[in-house]
Design brief:
The complex is a heterotrimer of chains A (286), B (317) and C (418). With 286 residues, chain A is mostly helical. Chain A has a domain of 197 residues. In chain A, strand 1 and strand 2 form a beta hairpin. The relative contact order of chain A is 0.21. Chain B is mainly α and 317 residues long. Chain B has one domain: ABC transporter involved in vitamin B12 uptake, BtuC. Chain B has 16 helices and 2 strands. Chain B has a two-stranded antiparallel ribbon with strand order 1-2. Chain B is globular, with a radius of gyration of 20 Å. The two termini of chain B are 34 Å apart. In chain C, the strands form 3 sheets. A 7-stranded mixed sheet of chain C has the order 8-7-9-10-11-14-15, sandwiched between helices. Chain C has a 6-stranded mixed sheet with strand order 2-3-1-4-5-6, sandwiched between helices. A two-stranded antiparallel ribbon of chain C has the order 12-13. With 418 residues, chain C is an alpha/beta fold. Chain C folds into 2 domains: 198 residues, Rossmann fold (3-Layer(aba) Sandwich), CATH 3.40.50.2300; 148 residues, Response regulator (Rossmann fold, 3-Layer(aba) Sandwich), CATH 3.40.50.2300. The radius of gyration of chain C is 24 Å and the shape is globular. The chains are: A mainly alpha (286), B mainly alpha (317), C alpha/beta (418).
Chain lengths: 286, 317, 418
């Protein structure tokens, strides 16, 4: 039954990875910006959820939408006030800018929240089926992650805003000519990226310990997920996340936990070289 | 291309750094060593990131690898300077091999690929325990000299490296290679069509960006006497280097030197004066630089001077 | 957006004209500012203790703990009139910088502390590797370096005569533990070990494997997980199949919280679960709630111990009372204890050295043989505190209970029911 357990573990972890990466992927795909703030956004979301629960007893599921909306606001402002000014500059410039902003946010979080690991202790118990045990909160996290990702996909396809975002991604100049306010769309996209990061943080607070030390690691995972799945598309993040979760889980079992991360990176490098657009990416989105 | 003024400036700067042991304490000398070391890194990065326009984040992979090759060689009885040369050669060969694979990628994909290289190096070094000591790190035999002599020695080593890489930069910028790289940056397909062997040129640039970084890494390891995977392959360090070059002016010869020096000195000021907020302040400086000095220190003031001159002329007529 | 646009960098070639001249001297000016901006440390009327601290970066949590007790000690000692050395009373001063959990910067700051701030003693930072780097600089300048949180013998294997550590060796800890558990629970036959691939957690995992084999146990699972692992389920699934009597996990608090959670989630359990050094930290029990129950650990110090000795805090209880005030009610762990204990030790060492000369302090340190509220301190050949009875602790009803040694014991081992 071990194999079944390992596959399920991988899929659940993968869904969380997808949730972690989808906002990052969106910003990268649409704005051509590598958002180094993403990891800190996730941790910020996690801390806000934790403190809402710890100090005021607010259930993470209740605070999640508020945390996500707050992060949307922050993201919108960051893009509107800062990144928009240099959004057409080379990738290195925007990366450096978000890196600088991340240093500020990181510092603020360390001073106010300290780096002590925190976790929301809900302990919802476990579910067992066919000898496979799964914790309820992880399953919940997975369901939520999938639901949010699905919602994002729907919004991107069906809503006016979503279509505008897609239009801007495809051709900025033409979109401007069509009367789309590109700066506004950019800010919204960045906001949505931050919103997804905040939601991921809220979910993570229930599953993982939250500490500022993890910002770099989250970004690292987001990178890998984006490359494996394909940049800038919601299905790409989903496929990439699930694939990475499975890779880590399976290789951890067969090669030992020490090598699971290495295998993940090697798969990423391989995909990068063989199919740079990722497993489900489309040409022309880079 | 570098003007005579630029060359004189660089010479003056080298003299200032080289004479720090005469008029300052060892802390300043150590800062001078760090400035020279980061200048080596920034100047090296300039080949691939500046001239060629490929956003490489692999610098620290070369640095860490050089440190480890040097350290392992030294621990096995290879004399220090020979160990450094060995590190240079190994890192150069590694970069050439890696470049021929990785440089097929462009833009973002190249950037991520290069970051992944750093991570894979770190993970391999930390799990290959029998050779590298794994997470425990490695102790390297120390030079048993007085602290002043040690400081002066490593200052000279790093300065020599800096001068070599600077000279290479100046040479490449005048040479056909530099022109070719410039073409690649502007439009790689067009460069290919006019008969530039783009693959070869890019691999050369990538190798040049690694070679002396490897030496610097090995020298750094001998200097501090201890290395471990986390510090040797730190992502923070690899991001710092392009920031330095951007700060000074990418693709210029003098820019990386100015950028590295200003960055290290700024860092020193913030670390020593702001205990809790140093990172945020440095972040603000970076944000400020992006907005107000987008072309780096070198370029913007040129524009400013020109604008000011123009403005005056306008008033006069 | 095409790749070419995205990778194009702003260029300023061939524009290194007069402007370059103006800017070329900028760094020189910066350098001059850096030199003058920081006032030279005051003349010799204070005892200066240098502390490179990890206030940001990966080790920030531990760095802040060190900072807290350093401040407590300096304030209290100064209020009591300082330290008297060779007939003169000196106030103490902690010179602290943030080294960002970054190796090169640790060396840089140590150099600054030794040459610019002319400190008399350096308190090494948290990371084992960073302790080596700091100690190396200290050795060059003959400034004694005290490592209050480095427990790996590899740190002390360089025979640096100026490096002293107040924690005792890991191996000591693991042998005592394996022996104790086997004694208390004779049915103990197998152990599964999962360690973080990092200096301290790794050496603990390895030492435990050796100690367990010596105690006649079978090691049924033994793996390391890499730094940055976010999921332990595959290791834990393997452990579940091995169904050991004792599960031993090492790592930092965030790893351990995650591992313990996932153990519960996957139904992995054993009569004895040890997490090093989880329960030694308050945030471990806080982050886990009822899951922390009955988890055992070893530690170098616990606030329920009762030692008496030199220093501004004569007993453990004195330190504990002060600590509660300073921390706003949270309990100290061994980092707080060992670091404050090291400073308390200096109150005895410095007068005995009779001078603030680095070599004199070093010699006095080497001859140290005292008790403090933290326990006994006597440095061995390699500069590490010699073996002493280290507490084995267990979480019982949300509280930390000391199981061994007998002298400070406050409860008995409780097994975890399957």
């Amino acid at each position: 039954m071990d194999i079944g357990q390992i596959l399920v573990n991988g899929l659940v972890l993968g869904a969380l990875y997808a949730c972690l990466a989808v906002g990052f992927s969106l910003v990268w795909g649409v704005l051509n910006v590598i958002n180094m703030l993403h990891g800190s956004f996730i941790v910020l979301g996690g801390y806000l959820t934790f403190f809402a629960w710890h100090s005021f007893g607010i259930h993470p599921l209740v605070s999640l939408p508020f945390v996500a909306l707050l992060l949307f606001g922050i993201g919108y402002l960051v893009q509107y006030l800062f990144v928009n000014k240099v959004v057409t500059a080379p990738v290195l410039t925007t990366l450096t800018l978000t890196f600088g902003l991340d240093m500020i946010l990181y510092n603020i979080m360390t001073v106010f929240f300290s780096a002590t690991p925190r976790r929301v202790t809900l302990d919802l118990g476990t579910l067992s089926f066919f000898g496979i045990t799964m914790p309820v909160d992880r399953l919940f996290g997975m369901a939520l992650a999938l639901a949010l990702t699905g919602l994002l996909y729907y919004v991107m396809r069906k809503s006016r805003i979503g279509r505008a975002i897609v239009a801007v991604r495809m051709d900025r100049a033409a979109a401007t000519l069509m009367g789309i306010r590109v700066n506004h769309i950019y800010a919204i996209t960045f906001g949505v990226g931050a919103l997804m990061a905040g939601a991921a943080g809220a979910i993570f607070a229930m599953v993982f310990p939250i500490t500022t030390n993890l910002t770099g690691m989250y970004i690292g995972k987001a990178f890998v997920v984006c490359v494996i799945g394909g940049l800038g598309s919601v299905p790409g993040a989903l496929v990439g996340g699930l694939a990475l979760g499975l890779i880590e889980s399976i290789s951890g079992h067969f090669f030992g936990p020490q090598h699971s991360l290495t295998v993940g990176f090697l798969v990423m490098l391989f995909i990068l070289l063989v199919k740079p657009t990722g497993l489900v990416g489309k040409r022309g989105y880079e | 291309m570098i003007t005579r003024t630029g060359l004189i400036l660089f010479a003056i700067w080298v003299v200032i750094l080289a004479t720090t042991p005469l008029h300052a304490d060892n802390y300043i000398v150590r800062t001078a060593i760090m400035i020279s070391m980061y200048s080596v890194l920034a100047l090296s990065w300039n080949f691939i990131g500046g001239f060629t326009g490929y956003p490489s984040f692999a610098t620290v992979a070369f640095f860490g690898l050089g440190a480890y090759v040097g350290a392992i060689a030294q621990r096995n009885g290879v004399p220090m300077v020979v160990a450094w040369m060995l590190a240079t050669i190994v890192v150069g060969a590694f970069a050439a091999a890696l470049g021929s694979i990785l440089l097929r990628l462009k833009g973002h994909y190249f950037a991520i690929g290069s970051i992944a290289v750093v991570e894979v190096c770190r993970l391999v070094i930390s799990s290959w325990r029998s050779v590298t000591g794994g997470g425990d790190g490695l102790n390297i035999p120390l030079l048993r000299w007085s602290p002043d002599d040690v400081a002066i020695f490593f200052l000279m080593v790093m300065l020599v490296l800096m001068i070599i890489v600077f000279a290479l930069n100046a040479f490449v910028s005048r040479h056909r290679l530099g022109f070719g790289l410039h073409c690649i940056r502007q439009n790689e397909d067009a460069a290919d069509m006019v008969g530039i062997n783009t693959t070869l040129y890019k691999v050369i640039a990538f190798t040049l960006s690694a070679l002396f970084v490897g030496t610097a890494g090995a020298a750094y390891a001998s200097w501090v006497g201890y290395i471990d995977p986390t510090d040797s392959f730190s992502i923070l360090m690899t991001v710092k280097v392009p920031v330095m070059v951007l700060l000074g002016g990418a693709g210029t010869v003098l820019g990386p030197v100015i950028g590295a020096a200003s960055f290290v000195v700024l860092e020193e000021i913030f670390w020593s004066n702001f205990l809790d907020w140093n990172r945020a302040i440095l972040g603000m400086v970076i944000v400020f630089l992006i907005f107000f000095l987008p072309g780096g220190l070198l370029r913007v003031s040129f524009r400013k001077v020109r604008d000011r001159l123009k403005g005056r002329e306008g008033v006069a007529t | 957006m095409s790749d070419y646009n995205s990778t194009k960098l702003s260029m300023g070639r061939s524009q290194v004209g007069r402007a370059g001249f103006l800017n070329g001297i900028l760094p020189a000016i910066f350098l001059a500012v850096a030199v003058t901006a920081v006032p030279m440390a005051a003349a010799q009327e204070t005892i200066r203790i240098g502390a490179p601290l990890a206030l940001t970066g990966g080790l920030a949590d531990e760095g802040m703990k060190q900072q807290l007790v350093y401040g407590m000690w300096a304030e209290k000692v100064n209020a009591a009139g300082g330290i008297e050395v060779n007939g003169t009373s000196y106030q103490v001063e902690i010179v602290e910088y943030d080294y960002q959990s970054d190796g090169p910067r640790a060396g840089q700051l140590a150099e600054r502390l030794a040459t610019r701030d002319r400190v008399h003693v350096i308190m090494a930072p948290f990371g084992s590797g960073h302790t080596v780097i700091t100690g190396t600089v200290g050795e060059r300048y003959r400034v004694p370096t005290i490592a209050c949180v480095a427990s790996s013998e590899s740190v002390f294997s360089n025979n640096n005569p100026y490096l002293f550590g107040t924690l005792s060796p890991n191996a000591n800890m693991t042998e005592v533990m394996a022996r104790y558990l086997k004694e208390q629970y004779p049915d103990l036959n197998s152990v599964a070990i999962l360690g973080r691939d990092d200096v301290f957690p790794k050496s603990m995992a390895e030492a435990t494997a050796t100690a367990a084999e010596q105690a006649g146990l079978e090691v049924v699972y033994r793996e390391l997980y890499s730094v940055g692992t976010m999921d332990h389920s595959s290791s834990l699934t393997s452990i579940r199949r091995a169904s050991p009597d004792w599960i031993y996990v090492t790592g930092y608090t965030q790893d351990l919280i995650l591992a313990r959670r996932q153990m519960a989630d996957l139904g992995v359990t054993a009569p004895i679960i040890t997490m090093v050094t989880g329960p030694a930290y308050e945030e471990f029990t806080e982050g886990l709630g009822s899951l922390a129950e009955n988890v055992t650990s070893s530690s170098w110090w616990h606030h329920s111990t009762t030692y008496e000795g030199y220093g501004i805090w004569p007993t453990t209880a004195d330190f504990y009372a002060d600590f509660l005030k300073a921390s706003g009610g949270s309990n100290p762990d061994y980092i707080h204890g060992s670091c404050a204990g090291s400073l308390a030790m200096l109150e005895e060492v410095l007068p005995r050295a009779g001078s603030l000369d680095g070599e004199a302090i070093r010699d006095a340190l080497a001859a140290t043989d005292i008790m403090t509220f933290y326990g006994s301190i006597r440095f061995g050949e390699n500069g590490m505190n010699e073996a002493r009875d280290l507490p084995i602790i267990q979480v019982q009803n949300g509280e930390i209970v000391v199981l061994a040694p007998d002298s400070i014991k406050s409860g008995d081992l409780e097994l975890i029911s399957r």
